[in-house]
Each structure stands twice: as structure tokens, then as C-alpha cells.
Design a protein that fits this description.
Blueprint lengths: L1 H22 L5 H14 L3 H18 L7 H13 L6 E3 L7 E3 L1 H9 L9 E5 L8 H11 L2 E2 L4 E6 L4 E6 L1 H7 L3 H11 L6 E5 L9 E5 L8 H13 L2 E3 L6 E6 L5 E6 L3 H4 L11 E2 L2 H8 L1 H18 L6 H12 L19 H7 L2 H11 L8 H7 L25
Antiparallel strand pairs: 1-2, 3-11, 3-12, 4-9, 5-6, 6-8, 7-8, 10-11
Helix pairs in contact: 1-2, 1-3, 4-13, 5-12, 11-12, 12-13, 14-15, 14-16
Length: 411
Amino acid sequence: MTEEIQKNHAALRAKLEKQTREAGVPLPESALQKIADLTRTMKLSDEDVKGIVTEVTTRLRKVLVDPHESVGIIAAQSIGEPGTQMTLRTFHYAGVAEMNVTLGLPRLIEIVDARRAPSTPTMTVYAAKELREDRKKVQDIALKIELTALPNVASIGSMVEKMKVVVNPNRHLMESRGINRDILYQAIVEQLGDKKGFTVSSGSGTGEERTIDVTLKEDAEEETPYRRLLEAADELRAVKIGGLPGITRALIRKEDSGEYVIYTEGSNLAEVLKIPGVDRQRTTTNSVFEIYSVLGIEAARTAIIEEANRTLSEQGLNVDIRHIMLVSDVMTNEGVIQAIGRHGISGRKSSVLARAAFEITAAHLLRAAITGEVDELKGVAENIIVGQPITIGTGAVKTIYAPPKGKAKGE
């Protein structure tokens, strides 16, 4: 039965390929596959299939790029012109003022400049299929993600007369973060213990709210013990109790689909993907360089396309995805992420005149003269500078018509 299905499928594909050849425009593999699937599921007649193929090829012919078309200039204009209409603003998640995401023109500039760290790094963390509608389990994942420092669950005070710093745990705050006093005590011992000239011990109180005393050792060789005590208080405030470095906040929001999604302030993709219960296929970050370092250059290319397209769409601007794809391809085609600018693609052009026309003209011309560079005048900018036709469109065609030799008519 399977062999018969495969044989029928192959016959259908052959028929579709023949019809597209007759239409004059070969369809891409993905389009052929979709038409074949549609034909089988809806049991379309040959006449219906032919009509679909004709319509698809007609639309495809309208969007094909003409030979020698200046796609780079058109892409730059298509993105740059709507970019002038973009606002300079930030966006608040779920009405929480402490959590901002940069949008508009600043975000677009971050993307094309290939900034290593976005001004407001964020992550969208999805839970696995079996957990995504269970708020309690998604909350547990959020607690593992959000960084918990000592000031988040305890107050810190200095007792100068006794040369010690006192940590007062807050039971309610600890419970909300899913930790207890033992975890707190152990973290302080590991990160600020004997090796730094301090003794960590239990103080006054009972139960979970019993204080933790950090005392400066009497035999510690300190010229300024009071200053060291103040520094100890600062070091205590930096003690990490749980969560991931770089992620300072994690909010849970219920989407229209019914699933709970975690939105973070800060980003740490490599560590988040290691947490059990996280959907590794859908979880993402707005840091393109993090995606590149964790998932590779192809994932980074897709991230640039998604981020740029979403940034433009959120402003109500409609830019053809192919222009954005071209920019993304240029930024990533060498296996690393390059900026669109003098420190990236524009500064590495082979043409001396093109580089000089972009920025720092005198320096480019002087360096080219010293090193004896040759400009072959193959691009747009350099040909405009020297006043000759540019090699795009009809200017790229070198064919010359030579009429046949013979006697003129009437001779």
C-alpha cells in the first residue's frame, strides 16, 4: 500500500512539474509540495490543479527580480524610508513600569549595527507542552530563571561597635522565592566565608528568621577594619542565592491560547535551555549574538529577520520580507555577524572610492595610495564618482549590435 501511495505521489509531482514548465516559471520545491498535498487531501481534478498552477505561476512571475536589478539599493531604500517614520519609544510589558523593551528606530539601529548586547535584553521562555497550562509549574521554572540576590529575601545592617554585619532573613520573601534559611546560610558561607577574613555564624532569633552574623576576624590583617566592614556589607548584597546570572526579573503572563509564558528582563539563553521543563524549540531571546553563540549562524540569520520584521510591523510599517532577508544574508554570509557600517560591511568593500564615499574620505584615499590599491570600478558609487554608467540594469549589458555588411539599398 505504501509503495502505491509513493508511486501516485511521484506521478502527481511529475505532472505538476510539467505544468509549471509549460507555464514558463518553474515553481520552488515548497510550492510544489503544498500543491501536491492540497491535491491529495481535497481530491482536486486535473482542471482544478492546472488552474492553481497557472494562478501561482502568474503571481510568481510578477514578483521575480529582473536581471541585473539593483536589489541592494532597493532593499536599503525600502527599509530606510519607513525607518524615518518610526518613533523613539520603549514598550512596557503587562503594564509593569520596571520592565521595558526597546522598540522603534533605536531597536532597528541595534539590529543593523550588530550590537553585541541590546540595550534592553529580554527572553520569551515557553514551557514544555505538558506544563504550559499549569501556572504552578511554570512559576517553578520562573523561580529557577530569575536571579535571587541576598537583598531580595533579607535585610542587611552593620554593627560597627561589634565589627559585624547582620543579615535578617524575611520568611515571607524566602517562601515566595522557594528558598529557606539553610540555603541562605550556605550561600553566604560559600561566597563570603573564612577565606575572605570573615566568620559566618547564627545570631539571635528563632526559626527561619534567625539572623546570620558575618564578623570580621580579630586576627585579620586590616589597616582599615571599618572600611573593610562596609565593603563586606556591599559584598553581602551581591551574594547570589539562586536563579541565573543576567536575568533580574521574570514575569508570567497568560496568553490568549491559555498557556503561560515567561518574559524576562535580562538574557541568558545557554543556561535557560538547560532548565528541565523549558521548550527548547520555541524559547528565544532578542540578543542576536547570544543566539549566534548558542545555536549558530543560521539561527542568528533567522533571528535578525524576525527581530527586524517585528520591529517594523509593530510600528505599522509594511516592508517586504525579502528586503529584510537580503540584509540578513549580507550580515551573516561569512559565518559571523557583521554590522552594516564602516566597522563592518561598508568598511570592507573592495572598492577604494566606495569606502571613501561612505566615511573618513581622506584616510581611505591616503591608505589606498600608500599601499597601491586598484579600483576596478565594478560597483555603483565608484562609477557615479568617475562619471560613467553604472553596471546595473541596462548598464550591465555589454552587447553591441553590428549590422550586416553589404550594399546599401538602392545602390
